[in-house]
Amino acid sequence: MKILGIGSRINHPELGKGVVTNVSNKEYWVTFIENGLETIALDSYFEVIEASENEVDTISLYDVENSLRSILKKWSDVSEIVPIADKWKGGKMILDPGQAGLAAKEIPIDAFFHKIIMVRDRLRVMEQKINSSSIEEIEKIELQQYITRIYGSLTTFNVLFKSTTDYFVGEKSK
Prior knowledge:
Elements: E1 9-12, E2 16-23, E3 27-32, E4 36-41, E5 47-50, H1 61-75, E6 92-95, E7 105-108, H2 109-132, H3 137-153
Antiparallel strand pairs: 1-2, 1-5, 2-3, 3-4, 6-7
Helix pairs in contact: 2-3
């Protein structure tokens, strides 16, 4: 039996996709996308997505974290942590209907902000899939223009972001 090295990517039938972060003489330590850090026996059944050589070199926790972050971005729709502006923390949105007799609806701003981030992240994934697809170049350009306009429509929500680097950016005016 060949032992996988640190950084190997696997797909376990019960725990899902993960990355080997440590190897002992009896088990792998694997950080799974959906289930976090788990140990599995060396002879467990799983599919090897990408094997890394079993090298003796040590690796820093910083390197492991960076690798995991990169892999999670590439292989899942896990979003990066984007902070909400401090002035909105713990706030709420109140949707007050214009029709008499209907109750107002309160939504925590943090929950709404999380949904906005999920929309942004899924747009980014769609953009990557379009760019890497085999469709005609003219169709790619048209789809990219739609995505850019969607980003432009979402600029209203930039007020919620703590950092301007996280803002939605639409088409620049000429």
